[in-house]
Structure formats: C-alpha cells, structure tokens
Write a structure and sequence with these properties.
The protein is mainly β and 154 residues long. It has a single domain, classed as Lipocalin, CATH 2.40.128.20. 5% of the residues lie in helices and 56% in strands. Strands 1-2-3-4-5-6-7-8-9-10 form a ten-stranded antiparallel barrel. The longest helix has 8 residues, at 11-18.
C-alpha cells in the first residue's frame, strides 16, 4: 500500500485506498426498539472491496463483498451521484479531512448516511446512521476494518 497517498487527497485516491481484503467488526444499535433486550448486536466478518475504473463520466466504482450476502457495486459519478448495482441510490461527498460521506435513500423513505475515514493506510473506520422520513433516528452502527496484509517472504 506504500504507493497510495495517505491521507487520501482526492476521491480517486480514497477509492483506490479502499481496495483490499478487510477484517471487519461492526456494532449495531437499534434506536427505535423499546426495552433493554436485543438493542445491540456485533458481528465479525470478512469484507472484500475491489476498486475498478468506470467510463469517462465516472470517478470509479467499488465492488463490495460483505461477510454474508451478494456483492454490490457502488458507482461514483464525478458530479457526486452514487449508484448501487446500476440504479441511482444517492450521493457522495469527499471531505477536506480525507473522509468520504455516502447518503443512500431507501425506497421506504429511510436515509442512510455513512462516513468512512482512514486513520492509517490499513485501518478504516465507518459510522452509519439511519433516519426515517421525518429525521427520527432508527439505527446507528460503527465499524472497524483492518486490512489483511501478507507477511513479507523471508
């Protein structure tokens, strides 16, 4: 990863830095549930992210394979548009601190906002909030991703 700029100075460098195999720990908090049971969950898993080039009008795309389920493709348009699996899904924004924010609108009116940033080349943090159409918080999560790196050969 030494060829990648750090911290990422632009969206293309950010997407390139996401490429790799990640060990992931996600903690989720259900904010809309009443009572003390089952309001929190944690899961560990493997996450594979491939950064791919797109057409000239696009910035690039990430193919994300979660710990369970089907892969999804996030395509980043240069105008800030975000598509998921070829369908318009929301917007993205690259911040001056080198982080990226994704805003995904779901068909049921829920807005999911994810902020992703790197503290080291091989350590990525993600925080996600979901709010309903009236802005009421429904769910929050925090994820720590550690890049799998191979040991140098002796």
């Amino acid at each position: 990863m030494s060829e990648q700029p750090f911290p990422p100075a632009d969206p293309a460098a950010f997407l390139a830095l996401c490429d790799g195999q990640w060990m992931s720990l996600r903690s989720c908090f259900e904010l809309s549930m009443e009572g003390d049971d089952e309001w929190h969950s944690s899961e560990r898993g493997e996450l594979t992210v491939r950064c791919e080039a797109t057409q000239p009008s696009g910035l690039g795309q990430l193919v994300v394979q979660p710990p369970s389920g089907d892969p999804s493709t996030l395509s980043f348009a240069e105008d800030g548009g975000l598509s998921r699996n070829g369908e318009p899904a929301g917007t993205w924004r690259f911040w001056p601190d080198g982080s990226m924010e994704l805003n995904l609108a779901k068909p049921d009116g829920v807005l999911v906002q994810e902020r992703i940033w790197f503290t080291r080349v091989n350590l990525r943090l993600r925080s996600t909030t979901a709010v309903d159409g009236e802005g009421v918080p429904l769910q929050g999560s925090f994820c720590t991703d550690i890049r799998r790196v191979s040991k140098p050969s002796a």
